[in-house]
Structure formats: structure tokens, C-alpha cells
Amino acid sequence: MPNLTIFSAPKPFTNPHIAIIQRNAIRSWLELGPQVEVILVGEEEGLAQTAAELGVQHQPMVRRNAQGTPLVSSIFELARQHSRSRTLAYVNADIILLPDFLSVIEGVERGVNNFLIVGQRWDLDVRQPLDFSRGWQERLQQDLQQRGRRHAATGSDYFIFPRTCFTDMPDFAIGRAGWDNWMIYAARRNGWACVDASQEIQIVHQDHDYSHLPGSQPHYKLPETFENIRLAGGRLTIFNLPDANRRWLAGKLVPAAQSWARFWREVEIFPLLRLKSYPLGQLFFAIFHPRKAWRLFRQGKL
Predict the structure, then answer these.
(1) Would 81 be classed as within a structural domain?
(2) CATH at 35
């Protein structure tokens, strides 16, 4: 029985560059070994053929919104129904994984029961299929040191959690902004360990354009992103990696780094997380960010 199920909802394989980087990503997951099973979700063109070629499970019957975009809730439910492991990991289909992914999961599982593991990524321009022969990880690391760029600590490109967590998710649209931030918020609100593993898990995001999206616009500008934010409960639920309350550091689960900035951020979000009151959260946000709050209020976005 596998220890981990990695699942994802890839984009169509019609764009040659998207096809290359998605195949690179999935093959890197399989390189983690037999303790990992992979499930690909959706009916996007070329997905069934790729799943069959790589020997991974394919679940096409995903629910979609009115625009035809797969729903995160359905993707997660399909993974839960068809997986065999106690731990699940949603990973964006352009992300290359390395063996440190597994070692961190094993350590966190020993320390807490309910958790969410997230982390920062490295960006790298990849144009060709990776050579997965012996030494591929070392070659990739060398390329990353020369050309890689550390991404901002905003959302996350992977989410690792026990199968008993996130069983009741809003109908977010996949591939649009907001839902990844909500995952961090939801873990904190539920009192789970929200673990930032950025220092120990190194993931590689392969650069791509937005030609697969309506109007070739970045996902944060699309109407479905605004709907995701509404479903999340509002703008104040858009949490980022610095809002994690634990870190995995040097093989140990430790509290988040303390600072005055973090102290006041915890005060700001106290009504959302402890009192579970959005109106009080709005009040505290206005106290801490009066100009921004006034601007969002006038725009009807707070």
C-alpha cells in the first residue's frame, strides 16, 4: 500500500510547451518510488493518453462550474475516493518534486495528527523534456543554482494533508487564484498544524505563459478568481505562507519564527481564527490598514 497519493488536475496537453513541462513534473513524481501513487483528474485533451503512457491512475469524471472549469472540491473528493494512502498531496502539474518531499512528510506525520504542509517554490525556465537517467536530480540542482529564481512567499503549489482533512471544501475553480490561500486560512482556523516546509522541501516550478486561460490573462484577473474569493468567505481569508504557524526546520517541527511583525499579524487575524467572526476581522483589518480598508470598502471588495 502506498504511503502517499499525489493528485493533480493538469491543463490540456495541446500546447507543446505545457505538454513538456507537465510530463516532466509527473515523471518526477514517479521517480519518488513505489511508496507513491499518482492520480490525474479531468478530461482535458491528451490527459487520458498521458496517464496511460506513464502508467498512472486517471479519473475523468470531475464536476465543473458553468464556465467548464473543474472544481477543486470534486478533484479532492475523487482523490480521496480512489486513493489508498493515509496522506494526500495536491501538486500543481508544472511542479518538479525531489526526494526531500517524502522525508518531510514522514517527520510531520510523527509529530501531529492533523496538518497542512505548504511551501515556497523555485522558478526555472524549462523548454525541453528532462533526462531522468542517473544523476538527473544533481543536474537539475546545478541548473537551479545557475538560473533558478526564488518565488515570493505568497500561496503554495503543493498541499500535503491527511485524508481526513479538507473533506468539505467550497466549489472553487481550479487554476484560478484564491483557493490556495484559503487552504492556509482553513488549516489555521481549524486549529491544525500549518507547516511551512520551504527550508526543507525544494520544488521547481517550470515557467509558462497564460495562453491556456481565457483571453491569455493571468489567473488573478479572471472573474472566476473573484468568485473564488467570495466562496472563500472574503478577501480577509487570503492567507499566505508567512501565516503558517509551524516550520519544518533541520528535521524538526518548530513554531513559526517570532517577530514584532508576526505578533501584530496574529493580533490582526485573531477575530477570524479564534472568534470565527468576519465582521470583527473587518474591524481589526481597518484598524491595522485604514487606507487600504477604506479603498477596498469604496470598491465593495472588503
Answers:
(1) yes
(2) 3.90.550.10
